[in-house]
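Chapter review: from sequence to fold.
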Amino acid sequence: MVADGGVRLLETKNKTEKGRTNVTVPAGLAAVGGLCSVENPGAGETKNTPPDPKWYKKLEENCEKWSRDEYQSYVNKTNEELLEVPGETSYEWGGVMTGKVPGRETQGDVKLTCENIIKRIEDMAKSIFDKHQDDKHLDLVTLMNGGLAFTKPLAKKLQELATDNDKEEDWLRQWSISPKSYDGTNSSGEVQFDEKSEQTLQELLQLLEQENGGNVVIGDDISDTGNTFDALIKKIPQSPNIAIETAVMLDKQGRRDEKNEEFVPDYCGFNIENKFVIGYGLDYEEVGRDLPFIGYIKEKAA
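The token string follows.
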């Protein structure tokens, strides 16, 4: 099948698990398969860097192709990627998302392509470094899986800035935690952490205790209900010596739970409308993480 404009579409079917989705994507943007397990990063800049899942490596490849304008004709389409969900409900591709940079709303909407996303993440890294460059360490906690697409370029830029400013090699330390609160397109409201994540958190807290405090930045791809950040922050004992900040690529303020309605991330890439978004690390039932842009899906018309 060839869509208008000559963009070839490829159908990829997941057959291994009941309830997995069928997805039609542009050729070259294959749907993500299985995810690699992420080992406990431990301490130290090198040890703390999680191994890259397969979908992230594919995302990097797709972003490189995107930068060569290979998919530029596709980004302007609005309905060429269709998600067909087994069962009574189905969704379709709604289009490429736009967002507003906090504090720069008058500059208008920004199309969420990989170039614009990475540029914004690097700006955020500069803001974080400016605030914490005089601290002995900065602990960056990634909320897996989607948060990796945000914190990987964030950490890369932070490390570049640290090196350029003669910081110690272990100034930036990275950790990964795996929460789960989504079922399909809906947030369940209940946040769970696996055993490895609980162990990782305890190791981080023990290290902070040994060092009489520290600075922690928790990074995730998106904040909507605020429940994930709320659940994790509650696990960290309140201490005047431990500063906790939050950083997100996207903020969907219209989805806040009542208990978290006053929550505002310390660092935010883009404010977006209340739509279910996929791409650039965000997924629908593990599909779409490797798309080199952020789009949204919507329910098909009856």
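Two observations follow directly from the output. Helices lie at 54-67, 72-75, 114-132, 147-164, 195-210, 227-234. The chain is about 25% helix and 25% strand.
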